[in-house]
Design a protein that fits this description.
The complex is a heterodimer of chains A (about 260) and B (about 300). Chain A has about 260 residues and is mainly α. In chain A, strand 1 and strand 2 form a beta hairpin. In chain A, helix 3 crosses helix 9 and helix 9 crosses helix 10. Chain A is globular and about 60 Å long. With about 300 residues, chain B is an alpha/beta fold. In chain B, a hairpin with a 2-residue loop joins strand 9 and strand 10. Chain B has a six-stranded mixed β-sheet, with helices on both faces. Chain B folds into two domains: about 220 residues, Rossmann fold (3-Layer(aba) Sandwich), CATH 3.40.50.300; about 60 residues, 2-Layer Sandwich (Alpha-Beta Plaits), CATH 3.30.70. Classes of the chains: A mainly alpha (about 260), B alpha/beta (about 300). At the A-B interface, helix 1 and helix 4 of A face helix 2, strand 6 and helix 3 of B.
Amino acid sequence: MPYPQSPFPLNFSNWRAVWYRNYLVWRKLAIPSMVGNLADPMIYLFGLGFGLGLLVGQVDGVSYIAFIAAGTVASSVMMTASFESMYSAFSRMFVQRTWEAIMHAPLNLGDIVIGEIAWAASKAVLSGIAILAVASALGYAHWPDALWVLPIIVLAGVMFASLAMIVTALAPSYDFFMFYQTLAMTPMLLLSGVFFPLSQLPAPAQAVVQVLPLPHVVALIRPVMLGQAPAQPLLHLAVIVAYTAAGVVTALLLTRRRMLR
Amino acid sequence: MLALQQVSKRYRDTLVVEGLDLTVAAGQCVGLLGPNGAGKTTTIRMLLGMTVPDTGTITLCGEPVPRRAAQARRRVGVVPQFDNLDPDFSVRENLRVFGRYFGIAPRVIESRIPDLLAFARLESKADAEVKQLSGGMRRRLTLARALINDPDVLVLDEPTTGLDPQARHLIWERLKSLLAAGKTILLTTHFMEEAERLCDVLCIIDNGRKIAEGSPQALILEQIGCDVVEIYGDGAAHCLARVEPLAERVEVRGDTLFCYVRDAAPLMAALKPLTQLRYLHRPANLEDVFLKLTGREMRD
């Protein structure tokens, strides 16, 4: 074996020290950080929701703003998890050498990567909950059905965090992240049913889009937020779980290749 | 406490470390002395389980590395070549957070922090941000951080590179106090003064191979065994013919003559009338040893 460590964490508890370190830093600047995470989806929600909503009227049986409120819960999870896993983790890994310092202690790289993914997912869940709270306050979410959103965004947070961690493992510099944003995140944002129903796309496009992870997250979150049952819950869950598993394993392998050769 | 046996590492086509044997007994200070690119940092990385050696075995604190490197690191403190302190935390918070990685109880960490701050002479900076610290202070903080888990072994990669002389002396003094307390130290350096001051045993390495081993004094005695007269200034190289019969051996490096003499008196007398030259009579040092063994200087 050409590597000194297995790609996997040493145990089930080490990652928490890494998570806690990131939490302590976040706590110092929690308010500005949250404002940053929420500003974007809020602007979309109110700008498009009211602005376009007046033009568009009802979409799939609900007001447009209720429609995109559910979509922006999902998209904010993707955005927050991805940015934390890319820019913030890259700073720690490469610029500050924080990961190197942690590996002087009895932690392995796998512990660090899982801790970072868990942290990015935590931030994503927090931003998803915040959008959900705003939507609920305005009456665009059905309770108690909307409780189902929580486990979905936890899983989606881990998924998006691990996928973005793959990009971080490969990135020579911050500029590299533009590739992921332009080629993956923006297309997903626009083609996953966040702002308009997938049924608006031509049929072949609708089929192609199903390979992406975000449409499946939206397809689970929107129905439960609007008080309906999702049409194919197991299919969507299976796709999300598959992306999560593949994302985590690939991120572990690629970070190890980068750091421990 | 630690041992490397016949360790080699190749990166692409370059043999970065070749057949290295290195042992550090408890309470010793062993130095790896060599120029940049000699393989010092790669050796440290292999020792800590950050990269796999192509051949050889490594043991650290009784554990095989890399198989049980994480367990070994419980008893080790590391001061890396380039600082990796947390810029988002204060001095105190850096110590606190690092202690948590070892699973040390928060109460125990808090109880150790005042002593560590005193050790590093950073009591007045306890709540300062890392950004506000000078290079020497950051290195002291890194040293203090490396002691949070009360390790048996300290591994330091070029601990005083980039520091001003005053900061350097303070680090040396702190390291000597740790040795007096019974800690074991492995350090790498390209400063011969550091090696001479701190190390019980030195391994001189060049291009990945160990070329000499022994205490600093023994190495100087064996390899040189006499004094040195350095001659430099206008026309130093031209007086080679005059100087050669008066010395055991003469090396010409650039525009400086290094004359190795047992009895310097005749040579010094011959140089006195040559007022345009400057010369210096000194004991032999590790630079001379390195020069003799490799034909090159070890640049500071």
